[in-house]
Amino acid sequence: MLKLAVLVSGGGTNLQAILDSLSDGRITNAEIVTVISNNRHAYALERAKSAGVPAQCISPKNYENRDMFYDALLDALEASEADLVVLAGCMVVMPEKIVERYENRIINIHPALIPSFCGKDYYGLRVHEGVLRRGVKVTGATVHFVDQGTDTGPIILQKAVEVRQGDTPETLQRRVMEEAEWVIMPRAIDLIANGRIQVTDGIVTISEEMP
Ligand code: GAR
Questions:
Q1: Which of 14, 35, 91 has the most ligand 1 atoms within 8 A of CB, as the residue to mutate?
Q2: CB 145 within 8 A of CB 114
Q3: Based on the structure, what is the number of domains in the chain?
């Protein structure tokens, strides 16, 4: 059973998609051992509680400096004995020491088709504002492993979503979530939990399902 630590910051719709997929069998061989939010007001914490999943808040506001916050986060991950760290709408950029400790064991969902509209200035609604400003006709979402860069790690899955005339950042964000994020995030976890993902020289390959 792959043990998951899910890191969140806000609404938690991606967490909900993972919870639903664990209950209906779209994800097998995995369980959530902890949900961690950096924001104590995150609705994601309520979602975890309703599902009966252990949840905790580790906020930078409760630590003297950033390093102490990162140490507390690493301690909580280690205490949970998680095999895979899932950044599901987590707005904290993982520090070097956590990335090193969990090499190819941290995944992130990004609401665009990497390498477009990604990097440190693109998160949350800003991504969709950038997409509309540039006028691209196709966007989407990406699940990738986390490395030392921002949105630069090996790509696991991507799904394209149409940009429509008259879209606002909010309508586009919703469509990207519904059509792409909530589909590929659970799918990526299921692939990892079932040993179907391999990373070689920064490239992900997915093996066939066992008959
Ligand atoms: C999602 O759209 C996710 O892709 C994005 O934040 C939103 C969180 O929603 N993540 C990033 O921008 C990371 N760079 P949620 O809390 O409802 O899952």
A1: 14
A2: no
A3: 1
